Amino acid sequence: MFNLESLRNIKTQFEYWQQQLQNEEIYLNRYQHFVQDWIGKLRQPTESDACGGLRLRTDLRRIYLNNANVIGITCVQAANYDFSQEFKYFDVVIIDEVSKCTPPELLIPALKGKKLVMVGDHRQLPPMLDTNTLEEVSQEIGSTNTELELLQESLFKIQFETANDSIKEMLNIQYRMHPIIMGAINQFYDGKLECGILKPDTKRAHNLAGKIIQEYHHIIWIKTPGSNEFKEETIGT
């Protein structure tokens, strides 16, 4: 009780908590009526609000964005002129499903971040493009085969495989698939995938048991004819 060092530590801790409490009170006093005021103005605008409706919406939008911690947008929308003017840069840019991005799509949001976090599956199929359209564009702009391959290759795959181990991490425990389905694709992940689902037979029961599909069938392969009459065809639009 009378150890001076302990008493000093307790006093310092209390002063820190007191400062935290004051900061929280300031924040609450500033913003506790913000949402209510906003809703009130939108539901029952005054004459001045009605006359300057566009300005009001602009002001409310500005206030809202100024207090937003996270902004969500697609990679392509990040290239929009208005968005680019309004948001010059971000502290952190997180791009999800990054393997499906073509290099141009990936670079647009990447250039806006002080720090870039790419989340995706480097063993996933590369971006899907219309081959005919791609070839036509390639001929029109006179691009080389190397440039064409860059549009078809997953930039994330290249980056992940060449990145230093200190800045990349592969998550090996999956919670989506039944272990039998996982077993069919584990060859693409060097057998490193593990199933994190507890009681998968219960939680991933398909409830489709019948004459052909049994309760324990979680993946079935079907061989289809390869002749022309069985190939996909387009009729109309």
How large is the share of residues in beta strands? Answer: 5-15%
**Number of extended strands:** 4
Q: Compute the gyration radius: what is it?
A: 28 Å
CATH superfamily of the largest domain: P-loop containing nucleotide triphosphate hydrolases
Q: How would you characterize the largest beta sheet?
A: 2 strands, parallel
Number of helices: 11
Q: What fold name stands as the CATH topology of the largest domain?
A: Rossmann fold
Mean pLDDT: 83
Estimated helix fraction:
40-55%
Structural class: mainly alpha
Order of helices and strands: HHHHHEHEHHHEHEH
Task: Explain how this protein is built.
The chain has 237 residues and is mainly alpha-helical. The chain has 3 domains: 1-41 and 53-68; 70-167, P-loop containing nucleotide triphosphate hydrolases (Rossmann fold), CATH 3.40.50; 171-221, no CATH class. 46% of the residues lie in helices and 7% in strands. It has 11 helices and 4 strands; from the N terminus they run αααααβαβαααβαβα. It has helices at residues 4-31, 34-43, 47-51, 53-66, 81-86, 103-110, 131-141, 145-152, 155-162, 179-185, 200-203; strands at 90-95, 113-118, 173-174, 194-195. The strands form 2 sheets. A two-stranded parallel ribbon has the order 1-2. A two-stranded parallel ribbon has the order 3-4. The longest helix is centred in the first third of the chain and has 28 residues, at 4-31. It is extended. It starts with a helix and ends in a 34-residue tail after the last helix.
